[in-house]
Amino acid sequence: MASVSQSPVTFSGSLSSATSASDLLRSSMNGVNGVPLKTLGKGHVGHGRKGLNIVAKVRKVKKHEYPWPQDPDPNVKGGVLSHLSPFKPLKEKPKPVTLEFEKPLMDLQKKIIDVQKMANETGLDFSDQIISLENKYQQALKDLYTHLTPIQRVNIARHPNRPTFLDHVFNITDKFVELHGDRAGYDDPAVVTGIGTIDGRRFMFMGHQKGRNTKENIQRNFGMPTPHGYRKALRMMYYADHHGFPIVTFIDTPGAFADLKSEELGQGEAIAHNLRTMFGLKVPIVSIVMGEGGSGGALAIGCANKLLMLENAVFYVASPEACAAILWKTAKASPKAAEKLKITANELCKLQIADGIIPEPLGGAHADPQWTSMQIKNAILDSMDELEKMGTEELLRHRMLKFRKIGGFQEGLPVDPEKKVNMKRKEEPRPGLISDKALQGEVNKLKEQILKAKETSSINMDQNGLIEKLQREINYEFSEAAKALGIEEKLSKMREEFAKAENEQLTPSQIKNLENLKNEFNENLATAPNYGRLKYKLSLLKEITEAKTFAENYKKALPLKAKVNEKFKEVLEKPTLKQNIENIKAEIEKSGVSNIEEFDQELKEKVLEVREQVESEFVNALESSGVHVTSKVDQTSMSMIKAKVDELNAEINQIIQDVIESTPDLKNKIEILKLEIVKDKNAPSKESKEKIESLQQQIKQGVADVMSFAAVKDKYEQLQAELAELAGVGSDGSLIKEPIYA
Fold first, then answer.
1. Residues 365 and 313: beta-carbon distance below 8 Å
2. Are 238 and 193 contacting, i.e. CB atoms less than 8 angstroms apart?
3. CA 427 – CA 678 distance, rounded (Å)
4. Across the strands, what pairs with 704?
5. Alpha helices of 486-600 — where are they, by DSSP H?
6. What digits encode the pLDDT tens for the residues 221-252?
7. What are phi and psi of 257, to 5 degrees?
8. Which one of 1, 12, 595, 701 has the lowest number of neighbouring Cβ atoms within 10 Å?
9. What whole-number distance in Å separates Cα of residue 367 and Cα of residue 378?
10. DSSP code at position 300
11. What phi, psi does 343 have (nearest 5°)?
């Protein structure tokens, strides 16, 4: 085997003849200036006749201005060393990007622009309208950005125009020098490191760098570092620890780059090495989450003494889309996932993962990057002032305890009031906040459901919830009316007097005062400001109560209706009746007359005879199945019966009212019952419930005694006789009426 040291060596190609063989071979192994040789051209090593020949063909490429431009500006901000950073201001202003939830704001902004354009074109003064629209815009902007949902904050954190790490660094530092390379063959552009000064204090900066446009994003790999990036950060951590520079890290990455090459180069090992090393660094570390912090890719430079977050930044172990795809099998559930993950700055501060929130301007950090950078600068200096007071051991222990306490919970501690509220069941809206339109919509919806259910012959719905809601609304309106009329104060004083009374019986003067107050309220109710709403809600309650009565009666009648229809079909299928009906139909068709009034006398008699046969068979079939048929009443007779019944009810009610007025004991009990119900309306005690039940029983007994009076009995017997004569029924006067709901 030929030996390189003993054989003469010759070089051919465009390489310098002054380069040694060992240097050349090392370059071919490690790359020239951090770039592998094979990317520059083709290399060939072989044995010639006279010894070892090495040939290298270098590809001609555009000459880069690196590390210095040809004519560096010595007066550049930050000093001449700032030329080491390729980060320069954009030549074009970035295009504005409107997020989905910001579109209503854009409509207002468009109106402002249109009015300004009109003012410029016409020369008219629209300053008042413009000021009004601008005030509306600012108020809408404030309302929107003070009530953002977690997924909306995620979208703001990912905003294309959001300031990047280098934007903030150049805004807050007096001088900044970017440092490159991991000293292992590569310089990852997704992680930027460098030394900078803030107010004369020197810091080591490192952070994830996203692009400001598509070209830069491709160059920066969308802020997703490879293992080279984390090893570059690790090298700078050792450098800062050696020289005593405090470290400031900026986090803004969706996560570490998860391609095959990165895994082959040890992505997990690089992140783990960083985690272990950061807990042993003897200098203060402050981390700032300025956009999104994704999983281990963010944590690899985030093990700090203090973790600060911008107001609209997020920090998560898995993105909302990934979480939703795992749990709910669709990325469309990402809003729900974002809420459950607790990834916003406020939530993470409550969980003691983040240590502080840096405010952003309305509209996000991209609305005013300079102002946001100044807030970051102040936060960095305040945090460093606090941490630099600690000794080395205290600093290391502080960092360790910050992460040891994450996820630790102690049982038996009282729950925060805010959490207690969230644990409660959702309550109904407070009375008075439900609009009349919403109530009317619910009533109409229920009536439509009843009508549809009637068509399908099945009613199964609950009206009690809506009735209770309406009753709460009506009670609220009565209370508001009483307050407006000055009755509420008088009633409160009267309640206090009743409460001080030794016995439970009301005195005649108290009953009189209560009656006067009641009459005063009824007389003046129409003048109350909310009388229209009260009257409207009472009408809705009446409608829904009638609907409930109809639904209950219809539901009870459904089985009987089905049974009657079934028997009627059986009757019509009997051979004799079927033949008679067919014969009558044939005769009617033969006569050419369709109206029964135009039939001749003989055809009329035949129709009536067949009708009586069908009715007789139908009644017999119902009787045999256990359905008792008492009589049949036509529509006119039914109207007369209803009028008689209503008349009797009115007279009975009047008699009962007269008897109550003339019976002080019964009237006294009714007033006491009203007071007991009003007094313990919200949370009645057991004693109060028993008292109310006892009073109700006594009042019912008193009313029953009234119903046994001779005058009421006479009226009832008279109505029975009239109904029996009108309907042609038996002497018992039995009548079952099906209610009609329209």
1. no
2. no
3. 22
4. none
5. 487-500, 508-524, 531-572, 575-591
6. 999 999 999 999 999 999 999 999 999 999 99
7. -70, 120
8. 1
9. 19
10. T
11. -110, 0
Residue keyed to tokens 């590809």: 59
Lowest-pLDDT range, 272-286, 403-417, 483-497, 625-639? 625-639
Q: How far apart are CA 348 and CA 346, in angstroms?
A: 6
Of 26-35, 288-297, 479-488, the one with minimum mean pLDDT is 26-35
pLDDT tens figures, 563-579: 777 777 777 777 887 78
Provide the pLDDT confidence category of residue 645 given band limits of 50, 70 and 90. confident
Asked if 6 contacts 52 with a C-beta cutoff of 8 angstroms, the reply is no
Say how far apart CA 702 and CA 712 lie, in whole Å: 14
Listed residue (481, 486, 485, 469) closest to 532, CA to CA: 481
Cβ atoms < 10 Å from Cβ of 694: 12
How far is residue 521's CA from residue 232's CA, in Å, rounded to a whole number? 83
pTM: 0.50
Helix, strand, coil fractions of the chain, as percent rounded to 5: 60, 10, 30
DSSP secondary-structure letter at 17?
Answer: T
Q: How many helices (H) and strands (E) does the chain have?
A: 28, 11
Distance CA 454, CA 543 (A): 17
**Hey, what are 385's tokens?**
């002032």
The more confident residue out of 683 and 571 is: 571
How far apart (Å, rounded) are the C-alpha atoms in residues 184 and 594? 106
C-alpha to C-alpha distance for 8 and 6, rounded to whole angstroms: 7
Instruction: Give the span between the Cα atoms of 476 and 521, in whole angstroms.
Output: 15
Q: What CA–CA distance (Å, rounded) separates 303 from 280?
A: 10
SS3 state of residue 237: helix
Residue 282 near residue 383, CB atoms below 8 Å: no
Q: By three-state DSSP, how is residue 297 classified?
A: helix
What's the CA gap between 472 and 490, in Å, rounded? 22
Q: If you average pLDDT over residues 95-117, what whole number do you get?
A: 86
DSSP H or E stretch at residue 42: strand 41-47
CA gap 157, 147 in Å, rounded = 16
CA distances (Å), origin 664, targets 574, 657, 669, 670: 66, 12, 9, 10
Structure tokens of 358? 């840096």
Can you tell me the distance from the alpha carbon of 240 to that of 182, in angstroms, rounded to the nearest whole number? 15
Alpha-carbon span 227 to 238, nearest angstrom? 17
Q: Is there a contact between 320 and 370 (Cβ–Cβ < 8 Å)?
A: no
CB proximity list for 434: less than 8 A, separation 6 or greater: 469, 473
Residue by residue, DSSP assigns 331-398 as: GGGHHHHHHHHT-BHHHHHHTTSS-EEE---TT-GGG-HHHHHHHHHHHHHHHHHHHTTS-HHHHHHH
Per-residue tokens: 258:
């998860």
Q: Which of 165, 76, 197 is nearest to 373 (CA)?
A: 165
Q: What pLDDT is stored for residue 115 in this prediction?
A: 85
User: Would you list the DSSP string of 585-615?
Assistant: HHHHHHHT--SGGGS-HHHHHHHHHHHHHHH
